[in-house]
Amino acid sequence: MLVIGVAGTELTSQERDWLQHDCVGGVILFKRNFASRQQVAELSAAIRAAARLPQLVCVDQEGGRVQRFREGYAALPPLQGFGELYARDPDAALELAREHAWLMASEVRASGVDLSFAPVVDLARGNRAIGDRAFSDDPQVVAAFTRAYVEAMHAAGMAATLKHFPGHGTVLEDTHVDDASDPRPLQTLQREDLLPFAAGIDAGADAVMMAHVRYPAVAPEPAGYSPRWIQQILRGQMGFRGVVFSDDIGMAASFAAGGVKARVDAHLDAGCDVVLVCHPELVEESLQAVAARPLNTAALIGLIGRGALGWDGLLADGRHAATQSRLQQQLGRTA
């Protein structure tokens, strides 16, 4: 099962052909796919119309620097500000995080998009790619925010995705461009990085996105295609029963598995339900890689929304403007 990227703000004929494949279960949108609220809704509808099977349309709309839809949308503050507020007023911080989750999820749903890959539950311990995307460096604090955020996303009608399992925050390297290795033993990871994931699973999180980080004291390969991490620890020991996504196989840290086919095979064989192919230039080869595989075409059905909320209804809801105002007043920073 693949979730693929497309090139622009409208589908090309080739992309419409891709969506006819039984192995394509969704499309992930980026800044390159955004021009306006109306255009995103039209693109989402076009994706569904072109496909043979139901499609999960998704995006990374975390807030701060990782917010793909901007003009016409709330300027969502990065998660780091919630951790700073928590040090002064824990209850207020958790309530404000719930409002952030509701606002983010409601605007994405109003656009005809099913899912934002959120929340980030990595620890804020210096990783170049994570930075202010994380709530805190304290596992217990991040666990508390994880529960609150998952519950609020569910209240807004959106599934929640915990990322990046088993924890990307402590290594320095950005796996978009570098390999990353975390030497800590499993016992340390269980006391620290895994705590927020356990909290999110307990709160009913629907999906987990894997990290391309290697943890050599636990398994030889990166977590994203590690049977030990996915099957034994995440599913076996932690009892997770939801959807497991790979991170993007176009990231540099995934190249250790080999070429595109080897990367796709490694992730699916290890236990990922869905492989993210965010770069359109990798889609053709990825489709060839899965052509002969038996695929679980139902894996993503539970994550697909029940229809767009619609912008008219959202803007008429007094919570929309009030929540934006509270977030701005309390946190200020928006990028």
Task: Give the arrangement of secondary structure elements.
Elements: E1 2-5, H1 13-18, E2 24-29, H2 37-50, E3 56-59, E4 61-63, E5 66-67, H3 80-86, H4 90-110, E6 115-116, H5 139-155, E7 161-165, H6 186-191, H7 194-202, E8 207-210, H8 227-237, E9 243-245, H9 260-270, E10 275-277, H10 283-290, H11 311-316, H12 318-331
Parallel strand pairs: 1-2, 1-10, 2-3, 3-6, 7-8, 8-9
Antiparallel strand pairs: 4-5
Helix pairs in contact: 3-4, 4-5, 4-12, 5-7, 9-10
> How big a fraction of the residues is strand?
5-15%
What portion of residues is helical?
Answer: 25-40%
How far apart are the first and last residues' alpha carbons, in Å?
Answer: 34 Å
Q: Order of strands across the widest beta sheet?
A: 6-3-2-1-10
Averaged pLDDT, please? Answer: 92
Radius of gyration: 19 Å
Q: What is the number of helical segments per DSSP (H or I, 4+ residues)?
A: 12
Query: What letter string, H or E per element, gives the SSE order?
Result: EHEHEEEHHEHEHHEHEHEHHH
The tally of beta strands, per DSSP, is: 10
Low-confidence stretches: none
- Secondary-structure-based class equals alpha/beta
Biggest sheet features: 5 strands, parallel
The coarse overall form would be globular
